[in-house]
Design brief:
Number of helices: 8
Largest sheet: 3 strands, antiparallel
Strand order of the largest sheet: 1-3-2
Helix content: 55-70%
Mean pLDDT: 86
CATH superfamily: Winged helix-like DNA-binding domain superfamily/Winged helix DNA-binding domain
Strand content: 5-15%
Distance between the termini: 46 Å
Number of domains: 1
Shape: globular
């Protein structure tokens, strides 16, 4: 039987136990391969995220989308402009407050989203190829929980703060 360290690969001993190393390696590999799956969308990955968020929830304003996706509100304006120019979203007055514009996905936007989603799922399948279907689903659930909880994460203490707290 091989140890988990032997299964991981050529990492320095103990490195595979570091969350930061693992997250960085996975994020880098995903970013390198996933960009091509969404490069036909205005804004690439950000455009994809906007389409997913707009399609998934009730109609939302640009500001609410910017806050939800942690995208600068000015950048969100340009992104929605580009998505609208491509015919993927439209803006409409909010029935509750006509000063606010809701961003709504169009039929073309839904079709583009489905094409990009299929391409991303293929990329994800290659990236998660060493996991079985249950492990892959579990990883997705666990990462989603961590991502949602990360909004409440507090910054780490500096080494000086740790020494001060320890009285040294």
């Amino acid at each position: 039987m091989t140890s988990s360290r032997e299964q991981v690969g050529p990492a320095a001993p103990g490195l595979e136990d570091e969350l930061g190393w693992s997250l960085h390696r996975v994020a880098t590999a995903f970013r390198q391969t996933a960009l091509t799956a969404v490069d036909d969308l205005p804004g690439g990955p950000r455009g994809y995220q906007v389409l997913v968020a707009v399609q998934a929830g009730p109609p939302s304003s640009q500001l609410a989308l910017a806050q939800r996706l942690a995208i600068d509100k000015t950048a969100m304006t340009y992104l929605v402009d580009d998505l609208q120019a491509a015919g993927l979203v439209t803006r409409r007055p909010d029935p509750a407050d006509r000063r606010v514009r809701q961003v709504v996905v169009t039929a073309e936007g839904r079709a583009a989203l489905e094409r990009s989603r299929a391409a991303l799922r293929a990329v994800e399948g290659r990236l998660l190829g060493d996991l079985d279907a249950d492990e892959s689903a579990q990883l997705r659930r666990l990462l989603a929980r961590v991502a949602h909880a990360s909004d409440q994460a507090e910054p780490c203490l500096t080494s000086e703060q740790v020494r001060a707290a320890a009285g040294g």
